[in-house]
Design a protein that fits this description.
100 residues; two-stranded parallel sheet; alpha+beta; 4 strands; two-stranded antiparallel ribbon
Length: 100
């Protein structure tokens, strides 16, 4: 069985704001650890952008629109008490969903 890491450079653009535990440095550390693994059943793949029609199989269109509309053109915004977003969050989220 092969373990695959899906990622994309755009995922590092998601910045939920200062002091939030989710940060680009965590993703970089995971990718570095993955690269340091010995030869074995591991590979990497680029996380594709999800087609919004597919995303609507899991979430109502109104919810998707509300979340994407909350992403700011600059600075930071909060979708809820635990979810901070920045301009890079849109593509990162759509690539994460595409990888799933």
């Amino acid at each position: 069985m092969t373990t695959r890491l899906y990622s994309h450079a755009a995922c590092q653009g998601h910045d939920p704001g200062p002091h939030h535990p989710e940060r680009a440095e965590r993703l970089v550390a995971i990718e570095r650890a993955f690269a340091d693994l010995p030869d074995g059943p591991f590979d990497r793949a680029e996380a594709p952008l999800i087609d919004l029609d597919l995303l609507e199989l899991a979430h109502p269109a109104a919810h998707i629109e509300r979340v994407l509309a909350a992403i700011p053109a600059s600075g930071y915004a909060s979708i809820d008490a635990d979810t901070g977003v920045s301009p890079g969050s849109r593509e990162a989220a759509l690539r994460a969903a595409g990888a799933a």
